[in-house]
Amino acid sequence: MGMSLTNNPPSRKSGSFINPEYAKLLFHTDSAIVDDSYYDLAPTLVGTPTISATQKVFGAGSLHKAASEAIEFPASDTWRIADGIPFQVSFRLYRETSHQYAAFLFGNHGWATGGFHFRMQDTTARITSNGSDRVTWTHTIALNTWEAHRITYDGTSYRWYVDGILLPEGDQTSGAILDASTVLAVGNRTGVGNQGDGFPGYMDEILWEKHPDLVVTTGLTYSVEPEPFQFDPTPAMSPTNPFSMTQLQLHLDSDFSDSSTNNRSPTLYGTPTIDTSEKVF
């Protein structure tokens, strides 16, 4: 060991330190629309969302977007929210128009298909799946002011916080959240086209955490971070071979399917077969 770099990713120690293994997506939105996490996911812009210095929570700017715009990231199991693996999504919102009937914040499906939406509608915060509300909370989003939001899942229950306070839960239907591994849209839902039901305004300090060992916020209140999310300055290795970097993965247990997020379709030349006589795993 000696003076070598530590092999253990740092956990949240104090302030706003985050674990690089757990932080799957991080937006500081100070000068560019880029993923500041160690995974460095490539965004696809829908419309022309911009970085604005007019409104911001920390740093030099924030993400400004119209209701028809979104930022999309490739399909991944990371965006599943009902698979029993804890996740926590923290973000800041500044809504600048009040005429929107619905404001989609995050989503990984269209509408009546498998997946989820986080959205605000009238006086209610909602998690929607397959065209139906699955969990609701009472909240009317503020106009022309910053709010700190946090949505958590401990593997069983969902919670939604605003400015550090747990929202009153409304109805929770018996229907399951259909958990698809599809494209994640930030600030809207996927396949938005010319729809205008995304969030209109500014977003800042967006952090998506997910990991079997992640400890999420579960109390009635929490102290909202007074500074940007950051990684422990103590030298640490980045996540080892994060799955998002995997371009092709063949287990060859029963077929020739690609288990990476690319899900590439194989073409066979000749008649290669799966053999159960010789194998590694």
How much of the residues is beta strand, in percent? 25-35%
- Global geometry: globular
C-alpha Rg, in Å? 20 Å
User: pLDDT average, as an integer?
Assistant: 86
| Main sheet overview | 8 strands, antiparallel
The span between the termini is: 32 Å
Describe the structure.
By secondary structure, the protein is mainly beta. The protein contains no helices and 18 strands. The protein has strands at residues 17-18, 23-27, 44-46, 50-52, 62-65, 70-73, 87-95, 102-107, 117-121, 124-129, 132-138, 146-153, 158-162, 165-166, 169-172, 184-186, 201-210, 230-231. The strands form three sheets. Strands 2, 4, 5, 7, 12, 13, 14 and 17 form an eight-stranded antiparallel beta sheet that branches. Strands 3-6-16-8-9-10-11-15 form an eight-stranded antiparallel beta sheet, with no helix packed on it. Strands 1-18 form a two-stranded parallel ribbon. It is globular and about 65 Å long.
List the helices and strands and how they pair.
Blueprint lengths: L16 E2 L4 E5 L16 E3 L3 E3 L9 E4 L4 E4 L13 E9 L6 E6 L9 E5 L2 E6 L2 E7 L7 E8 L4 E5 L2 E2 L2 E4 L11 E3 L14 E10 L19 E2 L50
